[in-house]
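User: Okay, second chain of the day. Same drill as before: sequence in, structure tokens out.
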Amino acid sequence: MDDRILKVFDPLRKKYVALTPEEYVRQHFTAWMTDSLGYPASLMKNEVSLNLNNTRRRCDTVVFRKDGTPAVIVEYKAPTVAITQSVFDQIARYNMVLNSRYLIVSNGLKHFCCEMDYENDTYRFLPHMPIWTTEI
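Assistant: Same drill. Structure tokens below.
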């Protein structure tokens, strides 16, 4: 990486990364999740690889339960990027592999969180992000 590129330390990846607009959103959002909502940093990972239709993809952030199963997937966009149906389609494709309970998209200005209901094959948007509990 070029030394002239501004970098920020990512505490979840434990390394310095380029401070892009999307990375700025990621760092603030994960800090908010841990500091304000109680999500344990030890159960969170940034840039989680997965295999989707024989193609490597990466989830921006995944929060795991203590048993290692995914509980929350978060997809970030830069503040200048609108949250559109295609963003939801992207995170829904990731969730076909991970089967998490919550899907969150954020551009740092607007955040949307939906809870999956696998029994009824539906979902519902929540008015707020859920606070961490062991039941997530």
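The CA atoms of residues 17 and 99 lie 28 Å apart.

User: Thanks, on to the next one.
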